[in-house]
Amino acid sequence: MPDHQRKAIRRIWLSVGQGHQVYVAQYGNPEGIPILYLHGGPGAGCAVEDLALFDLSVYQVILLDQRGAGRSRPRGELQHNTLQHLLSDIEAVRNWLNISRWMLAGGSFGATLALIYAAYYPSRVIAQVLWGLFIPSPQGIAALYGTTGAASVFKQEYQQFVARSKPQASLAELFTDYRTGLTHQSVDVRRDFTMRWQSWEMTLAYPSQMLDRGNVLFSQSLASIELYYVANNYFGAFEKLSQKLPLFQCKTHILQGEFDWVCPADELHRFLQGRQNQLLTMTEIKGGYHALADAKMAKAVINAIREMAKQ
């Protein structure tokens, strides 16, 4: 992508209350179709590289770093950081930009957040493309962090993930151990817990890709926010999804990788049984993984976002 296309139209730290400022950046065509990109994690933040998903001559792309994530301030802050706060922040951004309706794109937890937002604010969303949708049910959480699911496939990696917890520790005990480790006074202990958390997730997101051990401080913030959300059952996200799914009124295309171990396609199929909305379509990407570093998933998402513009 040429450098001039990556130049932001506008960037701001928008005050959203309780001491939080969310980072918002606009790119692309100022008169184009407004589309909000919602990153995963929670806590991952956006990157300029994410713009590769969009035709910037067609779309006005809004990148939003959620509370505590990316360049939002204060980084890693957990106080006043819940699902409801994230939903309210999205509306605050929309109102600040004076956009009446927009499209959504998001992956992993960002897809979860988008789907809930579209259900709570049905008149605000034109259409959305989501991928690697995470279902934050007890089964989904257990498949990701428990001894069944992904742990039964990646046995050695899981043993490294739980190495500093007692054998057969419950999920609650495991999360408590990680919270203690991530807030430990020793830098080395914090780094160890951070890297083991991130290594496990990277193993599942794209099994053949090695973990980038570059920005440890950023990774610690991400791990801390992810842990905070999962330990609090994502603040009722599963219940909200279950109750509100029939209410959204926009075309929604979900793409799920066949080998997505973070958000298994089987979990999504089970969730959608009996909850189908005629506006929702799902495509399973054969041979696809969770992360967009996987060429199959990236191509499918780019094509779906391009097709959404034609609607």
From TrEMBL:
Single GO BP term: proteolysis
Family membership noted in the UniProt record: Belongs to the peptidase S33 family.
Alphabetized GO MF terms: aminopeptidase activity
Listed name of the protein: Proline iminopeptidase
Statement: the UniProt record of this protein carries the keyword Cell inner membrane: no
Catalytic activity, as annotated: Release of N-terminal proline from a peptide
Domain AB hydrolase-1, chain residue ranges per copy: 34-290
E.C. code: 3.4.11.5
Spans traversing the lipid bilayer: 102-120
Species name: Shewanella pneumatophori
Keywords per UniProt: Aminopeptidase, Cytoplasm, Hydrolase, Membrane, Protease, Transmembrane, Transmembrane helix
InterPro entries membership: AB_hydrolase_1, AB_hydrolase_fold, Peptidase_S33, Pro_iminopeptidase
